Amino acid sequence: MTKKKIFTNIYTYFILIVVSVFLIFPFIWLVFTSVKTEVQLFEVPVKILPDPFTIKNYIDVIQDGSMLVYLKNSLLIAVLTTGIALVISIPAAYALAKIKFRAGVAFFMIILVIRMVPGVTQILPMFQVLTRLHLINTRTGLIISYLPGSVIFMIMLLRTFFMEFPQELEDAGMIDGLGTVEVIRRLVIPISLPGICSATLMSFLSSWNEFMYASVIIRSPELKTMPLGIQSYVSTFQIYWGKLTANAVIYVLPVVLFTIFASKGLIQGMTAGAVKE
Amino acid sequence: MRQKKYVVLKQRRKRTGILLCIPAFLVVAYAIYMLGYALVMSFNSNMGVLSGEYHFVGWENYRKVLESEEMRGVVGNTLLYAAATIVTELGIGLLVSAALRRNIKGSQAAKVCIMLPMMMAPIASGTIWRWMLTDRYGIVNHLLGLLKIDGPMWLADKLAAKFAILFVSVWTAAPFVILVLLASISSVSDDIIEAARIDGAGGLQVYWNIIFPHLKSAIAVILLIRIPDALKMYDIVYILTDGGPANATQVISFYVYNKGFTSLKFGEAAAASFLLFLFIAAFSVFFNSLVNRNKKKGR
């Protein structure tokens, strides 16, 4: 029995380690590449450890300054999109979860259909419309084009969280004379805070990571978001891998740190919609 | 009297519901408008879209798209990727979730490792992999060399490029599959498994007869989310191979994007993208009804 147990344990750890290495190695390689010298990058055979260790790439990237602009744009756009989407989605998700009305059912059906529309189907007409409205190459235009996706995603996720909100509590609030808006603000939001947080994080990340819409809507360098910045490094004739990876590390680092700290909540939020049916 | 009051309250509550949905509805209406606009575009001539006029051309755009040789390759590639990535992901997901079911030491750390690729921007993951797959300076071929395997020119060879795309898309999406399966598998109660063990069931028997049936609904959800996603893939192809070599890795989103924004054939692009939408919608509705029917049968 114990022998068998040891064997299954070894097997378990073996799979865990292999999969974790496969998933993690690119991150390690990214960091290693960013602290190597340009000469060392093109050595054959490849040397794994950075030797000599250098932070020149980071200094170059920061001195160049364009990266800070990209970061600022990404942050601004992701924060605004998520903020606006939150304000719009919370009331709607509450209404769809808690109030029975025919218009609500119809609205939810529409949301389900719109959710299936591929990004590429949306961006073709969006480009035409935004051009006509003179919103192409503006941050406003990009935020407008991110909003429907974020709002729909949030409504779907928050609805499942709000459905669990205890009816008794809501009734008690109503009896004490709270209006619907007050009920949402004073009762629903504080109690569903974990769910709201994970919806916020996921929506933030999807704007922070988005590339296709941004590549169509944004043209001028001073408005570019981080994914566009990385892409502009890759599409040049000679790729400066050292600087590129330094850029990527700075771009990815907040996400990595954040994942490590918030992993429990994130996993719950991500799987909540999928597992409960 | 009381009856009347109840009706009034109910009416008021309905009205509140509608009011609460109005802002969200405006945003969704914008998306609906875009969808309608795409439909109109798909019946307009390419020149018409560019000049802002309307020349109704009937099914012309759809005919052109469906008849083109290129489109056939693109559709083939897209379906192939979708199928291959999802089968691989599910395989990895089932294996890892089974391994992580018991809370062993270090499984929380492993979960964090598993999550990371998923949180990354596809553009960034594609970039890293592109560097790792470079043919002389790339780490992947170096490691293969240590095993005495001569690595291919990953991004320049037709077949190898397909595998590269498959590899990277599995890397980005497997975490989601693993985590969903893990959430579902951890709700299998230990008592049932213990009981089966006592009755003499072996490890594989326990897995196949007890754990696997429990995972079915999670797998259905994964397919419902991941198949449309895989059909829409764009970023990774863009950054890794740019559709090359010789269109070997073109997928449909990529094709539509280039047809529109590079060749400026917006009519045809809209037609192709609308076909993609219809395909995804048809798949989702069909699959959903299949799952629901099975659920009813199960009861």
Structural class of chain B: mainly alpha
According to CATH, what is the class of the largest domain in chain A? Answer: Mainly Alpha
Looking at the chains present, what oligomeric state does this protein adopt?
heterodimer
Largest sheet of chain B: none
Please mark out the parts of chain B with pLDDT under 50 across 5 or more consecutive residues, or reply none: none
% residues in beta strands of chain A: under 5%
| Gyration radius of chain A, in Å | 24 Å
Total domains of chain A: 2
Order of helices and strands of chain A: HHHHHHHHHHHHH
What is the fold named in CATH at topology level of the largest domain in chain A? MetI-like fold
Taking the alpha carbons of the first and last residues of chain B, their distance comes to: 44 Å
Task: Give structural notes.
- The complex is a heterodimer of chains A (about 280) and B (about 300).
- Chain A has about 280 residues and is an all-alpha fold.
- Chain A has helices spanning about 1-35, 40, 55-65, 65-100, 100-115, 120-130, 140-160, 165-175, 180-190, 195-210, 210-215, 225-235, 240-275.
- The relative contact order of chain A is 0.13.
- The model of chain A has no long low-confidence stretch (mean pLDDT about 85).
- By secondary structure, chain B is an all-alpha fold.
- Chain B has one domain (about 70-299): MetI-like (MetI-like fold, Orthogonal Bundle).
- Chain B contains 13 helices and no strands.
- The longest helix of chain B has about 40 residues, at about 1-40.
- Chain B is flat, with a radius of gyration of 25 Å.
- The chains are: A mainly alpha (about 280), B mainly alpha (about 300).
